[in-house]
Amino acid sequence: MAENLHPSQLYQHLQMYTCARWSFWGSLAVSCGLLFLGATQKPESKPWILGASVGVLEVGRRHRQTAKLLQESLGDIDRASRVNFQAWARANTQPTAQLALTVGSIDVNWKPENLITDPVEYIQKKQKHVALVGGTGDGKSTFTQYLSSKIGGRVVVYDSDAKPDDWSWLDQKDVIGRKGNFKAIDTAMGNDLKTLEELVELRGEGGDNAIAGRERFIIAEEFPILVDECDNSTHWIKRHAKRGRRYKQFICALAQNDTAENYGLQGDKDTLYSCFCLVRLGQFGRDYARSKLKDPQLEQWLKAGGKKRFMVDDCPCELDLSNWGTTAIATPETSTGEDKVQSQPTAMNEFEQFILDWGQQHSGEVLKAAALSRATRLFDNMQPDEIRIFFVSMADRGLGEVEGSGAKLGWRWSR
């Protein structure tokens, strides 16, 4: 009979059988105890105690009858117990089959509904600064190169740990603080505060035209360290956060997490979220998707895209290089009504010089990132996307031109 029952019915029958047996023996013990108690009590109490003993004994009899019926239903109790255990073991030791039914495979073609491909457009639309959260190897260089080439204006970097080849696409006098020179960074931040005050006066006297050409994009690496080492850092970030945007003094502060304390904004978390777009790279973006947005599929999507995929506020982002080099960035109109295009530095680093030399030696040929990596060990530590950034940067400055888009983007020399 036991094999004809569903595992859930079998388990229920065994539980009822066990309870009925224990209830019978318990009732018998209580009934005997009441009889013994009645023998020692006063005569007027004995009828009540005797009646209670008989009632308990009747309950026990009924439970014994139930146990007999269940035993007939189950047959061999020991065998029924083994069948029940086997059913329990199958249900609890084979989770793989259940996971295959409930989780399913990841769709490689899936894309988030709120995906953005141009974070600069998003940031400029919000008119905010950038708080960049990322660790070593998360693609901070790729993202900051993208920002500096698209936002426009003079790019300045505060980086006490910069290696000789870091920030190589910039004028090196604008990379401040190498070799742990925090004094230089602190002095520069103090000068930034003075510059901001000057711009306030100039704009108040002559309007937006008076500050045209003074746009800057300032990148502050490892901002928590700067907070500890530079006296001006806290005032610098608060002042620029609240007033810098109006005067085209945009900042990008980098840290290891998105707490207000890491950005020198203790007790002022509202400033962080109201004045900054939070960009979370690498594991920080995946953790945010999983723990804050509760979206494991988004977490997998971010992981599959490497450095090109990250989070900007609550929006997933994937860098799109297809439109690089197609537009120039102009400053506000001058008093003559003409747009003034932001000029780029003409000095070249060793990477750009190699690309230029190759192009002049192979006139008319299109240089691709993969071919460049094979041609020299100079680019061994760079990702293809980072090499394409050099292509676009040079084309924007009139050094050659780009062809194609995305992963097929290449560069060739042209006068």
General description of the model:
The protein has helices at residues 7-39, 46-74, 77-92, 95-102, 119-126, 140-151, 182-206, 223-229, 233-243, 269-275, 282-292, 296-305, 350-361, 369-375, 384-396, and strands at 129-133, 154-158, 175-176, 216-220, 249-255, 276-280, 309-312, 315-318, 367-368, 401-403, 410-412. By secondary structure, it is α/β, with parallel strands linked by helices. The chain folds into 3 domains: 2-102; 119-323, Rossmann fold (3-Layer(aba) Sandwich), CATH 3.40.50.300; 350-412, Arc Repressor Mutant, subunit A (Orthogonal Bundle). Helix 1 (7-39) packs across helix 3 (77-92) and helix 7 packs parallel to helix 9 (233-243). It is elongated, with a radius of gyration of 37 Å. Mean pLDDT is 78; it is low at 1-8, 94-104 and 324-346.
